[in-house]
Amino acid sequence: MNQIHYFILFILLFSTSFSQVENFNKQSELSKGFIEKFKSQEFDGIYAMFDSTVQSKLPIVTLQQIYSQIQAQSGDIENILNQNCSIKGEYILCVNTVKLSKGNLKFLLSFNKNNQISGFFIQPDDEKVNYTNPSYADTTKFQKKSLKFGTEFPLDGELDLPIGQKPVPCIIFVHGSGPNDMDETILSNKPFKDLAYGLSSNGIATFRYNKRTYQYGAQLTKYIDTLTLDFETLEDVQLAYNYVKNQAGIDSKNIYILGHSLGGYAIPKIAEMIPEAAGFIMLAGSARPLEEVISDQFQYLSELPNPNITPEQLDEATQLIEKIKKEDFSEVKSPSDYPFAASPAYWKYLHRYDPLKSASKIKRPILVLQGERDYQVSQKDFELWKSALKNNKDAEFKLYPNVNHLFLEGTGKSTPDEYNTIGHIPIYVINDIVNWVNKSK
After folding, report:
1. CATH 3.10.450.590 holds for 25-124
2. Cα–Cα distance between 234 and 188 in angstroms, integer?
3. DSSP bridge pairs for 156
4. What is the per-residue pLDDT for 131?
């Protein structure tokens, strides 16, 4: 639900049903029309093709942002290479492989009985992009166990458990914003998988799982008006902790929580919920109100040599951010008016959460990691965490000159385009976490 970090392109919403049909000519032509409109930036026309639920989740301003990110990362749309439409339960799903100037993407469009688009999903072309394990991953040193936990919204997860050792410490991963899978897949990269394999190759178990909004996107649309950070993220962290501590081979007294981006922002709240955890790790966690972070992101993107944000979009975002600060939601009449696709309830919840105040009360060891090239969460946040945690003698801080928001290395100014470059989290980040855990346990 959350479009706070604009490199997230994964938008999957299924809402209505239809009876099966004998051919897909209509849906195929509609798909072609959608992609042509996307290519020519006819966002009003695209919006009109959506059903009411998708319209509520993808206002025109969000479509413009998605287009800007795709253009920056993958270039201009050239043509459709392939189409494949099929019946998927109560929907017709058309997978369109599209050639762009910097690579291929798949546009997945789901159609309801009225031939409205009830689902929109963009993903890399897996035939062109394949993840390979980082060089430091030694899969002979740990076993991978597919697990499921939770009751109301059971989630798929993976426990990577070092082989042949006494009960070992474990790190639970908490995602950033958006509907992330267990690997926190971002285009060609899987930062959580890198971390998991690197840590588990060095004697530390890891547990990662699909985010609730990823695995249950369709079911959660009915909660859009009341959804908060608790429901989106925190409930599942508590469930994951209770589940992992009872797994064979895990040292239940040495379970750590690692949060990236929005997950890092939530770490002080998680520390209040699970004070018995052995320690906490923040990767690029924002410390400021999220509307302030968004404002910085928009400003940064607007100043790039090839700006991802137009002056008009920057002005519109600035006005919207000022209203969020004042909790002025008087113009919100329906979900399509939700600022940055988050409901007033979500924003009000965040305004009542003070991460710095909560962080100052953390008594457990805490490790704060930050990249100097991160434009989404900056060194402003890093310095605020240092100040808030100054009385915690077990707090440590690491600033990496060459890494971006995904903790991938690069040079020069970071741009959204580099998220499409295949990379791995550097071994020195893995080693810093390993050494910190071994010292803290």
Report:
1. yes
2. 27
3. 148
4. 82
Q: What is the pLDDT of residue 19?
A: 32
Contact in structure between 370 and 381 (CB atoms under 8 Å): yes
Q: Where are the domains of the chain?
A: 25-124, 142-291+338-440
Confidence of residue 349 (pLDDT cuts 50, 70, 90): very high
Between the alpha carbon of residue 133 and those of residues 136, 194, 424, the distances in Å are: 8, 7, 8
Cβ neighbours of residue 360 under 8 Å, at least 6 residues apart?
A: 388, 389, 391
Superfamily of domain 142-291+338-440: Alpha/Beta hydrolase fold, catalytic domain (3.40.50.1820)
Task: Answer yes or no: same fold for 25-124 and 142-291+338-440.
Answer: no
With 70 as the cut, is the pLDDT of residue 23 above it? no
Of the CA atoms within 13 Å of residue 80, those in its CB half-sphere come to 20
Q: Tokens 């790190």, residue?
A: 171
| Mean local confidence (pLDDT), 274-285 | 98
